[in-house]
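Hi both,

Apologies for the delay on this - the queue was longer than expected. I finally got the 2-oxoglutaric acid-bound model through. Below you'll find the protein sequence and the ligand SMILES exactly as submitted, and right after that the structure tokens for the full complex including the ligand.
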Amino acid sequence: MASLPVINVSVKDLNSNSSSWAKTCDEVVRALEEYGCFIAVYDGVSSQLHDAIFAASQQVLDLPYEVKILNTSDGAGHGYFGQSPKNPGFERLTIEKATTKEGVEAFTKLMWPSGNDTFSETASTFVHAVAQLEEIVMKMVAKSYGVEQHYEPFLGSTDYILKFNKYESPKTDEPRLGLFPHTDKSFITILHQKEQGKGLEIKTKDQKWVEVDLSPSGFVFMAGDACTAWTNGRMEAPVHRVMMEGKKDRFSMVVSSYIRDLEIQAPQELVDEEHPMQYKPFEHYKYIDFHTYQNSRKLRNPLKHYCGV
Ligand SMILES: O=C(O)CCC(=O)C(=O)O
Ligand SMILES: [Fe+2]
């Protein structure tokens, strides 16, 4: 059975002038072109921070339903999701603009009107550490493709969301769908899991599901639809789902990035006769609106439908 490539991108092991750095760049690009994702081993989140973010996750998911539904979104379709007959046993809370102080504080204040500094500090530290991982890897990708000057402007124009996901165990011997198959509409999504084990599954190009047995020190680094368009189809957002089995609930943390103010457009270096332009330039948040309001789930390929050439 196939398994996802595991690549060490720990800061302590990478020196951007070394041959091992160049080798890691190659591995990262190959994995993203083949699978649309890989498992990153990354030292930016200590085991203390890992424990703290999942304690914070438990704390917020344990709040009463009446409080959790106060987590609404300003239009991007995020916010609280749960108790849905269509998706039983799945629950999610979302912090928007999670790398900003205002974003985290607004969420914390909704959940705990009298404040919860430990929660906001933990959420903020975690999301910054994961955003750093995205930057490290995307700089490798940009360097390998020779498009650093096109990636650089995104750095000041990226919003991050942080999602706290809980999947209840089916409590029977029958596996149950935890989250329906989809591609992420983000630029990049990075996924982290509380305990060693399976749950997440990725569809390969030959339409086979690969189970991801993720360890607590691993991060699934995944291309979203905006990355597919930006790389002119070289890195395709993988279809993924969650399958639940056994008697244990599963907790995951997801950080997704969205580009604001700038259009998503493949750099001219990635467009030539052999690789004609596949997607017209578009605004990421308008694509998110399309997804949220036009019921794009029914479409086989929402990105192609929205901006395909
Ligand atoms: O929890 C997971 O492993 C997957 C979550 C996911 O796909 C998402 O939040 O978009
Ligand atoms: Fe996803």
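Main takeaway for now: The domain at 6-10+19-307 is CATH 2.60.120.330 (Jelly Rolls).

I'll put the files on the shared drive as well.

H.
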